Amino acid sequence: MNNAALRNRIDTMRRSKLDSLSSPEVANAYDGLYARAINEFGVKCLWNINTQPTDAGMDIIAEQLMKYGDFKAWKLAALIKERIGRAVRYPAS
Q1: What whole-number distance in Å separates Cα of residue 68 and Cα of residue 1?
Q2: Residue 77, domain extent
Q3: What's the domain count of the chain?
Q4: d(CA 1, CA 54)
Q5: 69 Cβ neighbours under 8 A, 6+ residues apart
Q6: Whole-prediction pTM value?
Q7: Residues 26-50: tens digit of each pLDDT
């Protein structure tokens, strides 16, 4: 299986998991931030984690977005951190 096929399979698995987790309380808790992170950055940034849309899980997602993502991922991570009430740690210059 080549890299593109593997990425597509992983992305498909994550999307199916996301569909199974789309309960009303999860959807209201984070206003789709979990879904947005999975859909936009699942293969690029979240390939090695398996989290739930809880406070701890969203914190892990934000850390992964900051570690592996671009500026757009950083903005989403900052929004997630703000929503769960944790401060954003910017890298030292």
Answers
A1: 24
A2: 3-84
A3: 1
A4: 33
A5: 41, 44, 45, 76, 77
A6: 0.65
A7: 555 676 888 889 889 888 888 888 8
Q: How far is CA 40 from CA 21, 51, 87, in A?
A: 17, 16, 23
Between CA 55 and CA 3 the distance in angstroms is 32
Q: Are 78 and 88 in contact (CB under 8 A)?
A: yes
- The residue written with tokens 């947005």 in the block is 36
Hey, what amino acid is at 34?
A: Y
- Does residue 67 lie within any of the structural domains? yes
Residue 50 lies in a domain: yes
Q: Is residue 90 part of a domain?
A: no
For residue 89, being part of any structural domain is answered with no
